[in-house]
Design brief:
This protein is mainly α and 172 residues long. It is built from eleven helices and no strands. It has one domain: Methane Monooxygenase Hydroxylase, Chain G, domain 1, CATH 1.20.58.480.
């Protein structure tokens, strides 16, 4: 039996030291930048879990699934979990709203051109759920701000089966 230790198992040294405030680098700390980083990192961690759940559901639905089967119950359970996470993500907006617009302006210029629109996990999630690039508002803009490798990775998802496709296949 291994001697697993909580701190090591969760790799807390990595996580808790991953908040590198740009305002501190110029010796003009903006207090709310820490909140901004932590909230966005939490979003990315939850996106990771959602992608994990959606991926497992897609794997299950790749095979024929009968009504009321254990496999279908597992699909329902995991998609319910995704729904709960999405509700939590909406609640996190209340936390970020405790930062005033003026507090945000204390460090916003230091982050340019970075933007939440560059979240690869969010874009991957959109694609896996079934949003095609030609159905997006502003078609090219959604990838125009990405690094080339990230842009290509997103575009490569376009021809792949989506959760929407797999559910449609199951319904047939």
């Amino acid at each position: 039996m291994s001697n697993v230790y909580y701190h090591d198992y969760l790799q807390l040294d990595k996580i808790l030291n991953a908040q590198d405030m740009e305002s501190e680098k110029i010796k003009k700390e903006a207090h709310d930048e820490m909140l901004f980083i932590v909230v966005h990192q939490a979003y990315e961690l939850w996106f990771k879990q959602i992608l994990y759940e959606v991926g497992s559901v897609m794997d299950i639905l790749e095979e024929p699934v009968n009504d009321n089967s254990p496999a279908l119950q597992l699909v329902e359970h995991r998609l319910s979990r995704v729904n709960e996470i999405l509700q939590l993500l909406i609640q996190q907006i209340d936390v970020i709203e405790t930062m005033t617009p003026l507090d945000f302006l204390d460090f916003r210029d230091l982050l340019r051109p970075a933007s939440g629109f560059q979240s690869m996990q969010f874009k991957i999630l959109e694609a896996k759920l079934g949003l095609k690039s030609d159905e997006r508002f502003g078609k090219e803009y959604y990838v125009s701000q990405l690094r080339e490798a990230d842009r290509q990775a997103i575009l490569d998802l376009d021809g792949k089966k989506t959760l929407f496709d797999l559910i449609g296949q199951w319904l047939d």
